[in-house]
């Protein structure tokens, strides 16, 4: 059984990224895993200021915001799923701020091991659409010594006249991803 922290870096609870994570969570819970979902759109999290206080005071970030509420959930999880819409060819600002603030939990640039997954959505579906954010994800997870156990990118999530929608095939794939975690 895994203890999965799902971090949704979207600003919309009714959006494609949130729906994609709902499908993943359903599969993971059916597989017997414990899932804790955090919606960053409801949180106030600023990026790391680089002050270094966390490396001098027992790994406690000096910035007092919603990240303080998330650190305990991160500490308890063994698996981290990051979910983000594509914003300007990268992860959302909320997701980036969350990732930066994980610096506080490092000890001498060593991080507690996590298995990680990435779910992303985007309006277009070109072959290059997710190239930059997936590269970023692969780099920082490798740098932190974490193990990537899955990436799913859901392109083509804009319908006619800009209406948001996500194809059922993406929801099914995310559900199966959650269900298949061992």
Automatic annotation (TrEMBL):
A GO molecular-function annotation: oxidoreductase activity
Gene3D superfamilies named among the record's database cross-references: 3.40.50.360
UniProt cross-references to Pfam families, sorted A to Z: FMN_red (PF03358)
Annotated ranges, domain NADPH-dependent FMN reductase-like: 3-123
InterPro entries: Flavoprotein-like_sf, FMN-dep_NADH:Q_OxRdtase_AzoR1, FMN_Rdtase-like_dom
Protein name (Swiss-Prot/TrEMBL): Flavodoxin family protein
Protein source organism: Sedimentibacter hydroxybenzoicus DSM 7310
